Amino acid sequence: MKKSILLIIAIFFFNQAFAEIWLPSILSDNMVLQQESEVTFWGWTTNTNEKITITPSWNNISVEIKAYQGKWQGKLTTPKAGGIYTITIQGHEEISIKNVLIGEVWLGSGQSNMEWTPAQGLVNAEEEIKNANYPEIRFFQVSKHIANTPQENTKGKWFVCSPETMKNFSSIAYLFGRKLHKELGIPVGLISSNWGGTPIETWIPEQMMNGNKSLQETAKKITPRAWWPNETGLAYNAMIYPLLNFNIAGVIWYQGESNRENAVSYYKSFPLLIDSWRKAFGKVFPFYYVQIAPYKYDDLQGVDAAVVRDAQLQTMLEIPKTGMVVTNDIGNLENIHPINKQDVGLRLALWALAKDYGKSDLVYSGPIYKSMEIKKKKIILNFDYADNGLVKKGKELNEFYIAGDDQKFYPAKAKVVGKTVVVSAKAVKKPVAVRFAFTNGALPNLFNKENLPASAFRTDYWEIKLK
């Protein structure tokens, strides 16, 4: 009997000595937590039913929880932006998370244009890198990997923004975050989870795609390539799912080039991605994204990329708390990775500052088609975000096309009249529809007075035949 008791005691102390508590990589030194919100702390322990105490230095009020089958999770309420703080997690051992800030946390995701770093190509890169000393901006880079099932953790680490760390981080995410930091005067945390070349389907949870047979079929049209995943959910499982417990302010997104092969399905897949992420995070956060830039692709006059842009426009018009950045003035027909990321980051930040941070005096979008009026041989186009008027850059407005009932589009003469554009063509006696910048490589020149470009659009709902 004595020997049995001694053995039990020995096993107990052995388990205690070699027990371990660990956290997901997103909960680590240098992180930024979302201000004035409820944030989740979670992790694992080899001690099945261990009691865990979490104590933040901003108020020293402890939260006690008990692990269940080796997993534990607790919630803390964060104060207004500030820091530096330490968070202590105490069980049979103690873990301290140091150099923690409270501020605004944004997730940047998509394909290569969101992934692209200053080291890979950026206007004035040397100067931008040299000046990237912002200790209150923090970076978390999710590594590229896939999984067939949702993963609870991902490789990654928080870094303080410096020239050395910034040069290999997403240019757009950094420039977006820098603008927020400067305007708001608070810490900003940026999570970069992206993979060049990936179609949207690999970022959508598999169960969401399984509920839509048409999307499943069109997903098969995308050509498999060796350098990135294209199957439903593989990137989501490995690179988004592990972040779901981490409270974020919102998402910025730049993707779409790889969906030209099944462009029409983007009208459904893009809203599905936004809806699925919001449900997964349990929060209807703002979702701001970049309309894909003009590029030569296989055919400058083709319309597959134009259809993706139109799907992006329609998503903004139909889905609440979304916003779109137009880039048809800063693209490069010879480079699918235009190096002017400064304007992209700034334009994304304008949406957030105006819609989420109370900067009501900002114009945050270029002209967006609103309605049209047919007057004899002319069509008058009305726009939102043109309160101060419209302007053209160059001698004549370009990239406007007009059609009659035969659905044949002809180049149109276009003229700015105050807040409207009037279009006509000699070849079209009874016009019924207009398209603007509706080709892969369109380089239009219509802006509002705030120097933000107008989005491509079409007034018709006719079927578009793609190659």
Automatic annotation (TrEMBL):
Q: Do you know which SUPFAM superfamilies this protein is assigned to?
A: SGNH hydrolase
Alphabetically sorted, this entry's keywords are: Hydrolase
One GO MF term on file is: sialate O-acetylesterase activity
Report if keyword Hydrolase is assigned. Answer: yes
Q: Where is the Sialate O-acetylesterase domain?
A: 104-337
Q: Which domain of life is it from?
A: Bacteria
According to its UniProt entry, the protein's GO biological process terms are: carbohydrate metabolic process
Signal sequence span per UniProt?
none
InterPro entries referenced in this protein's UniProt entry, alphabetically: SASA, SGNH_hydro_sf, SIAE
Identify the Gene3D superfamilies for this entry.
Answer: SGNH hydrolase
- Protein name per its UniProtKB record: Sialate O-acetylesterase
Query: Top-down, what is the taxonomic lineage of the species of origin?
Result: Bacteria, Pseudomonadati, Bacteroidota, Flavobacteriia, Flavobacteriales
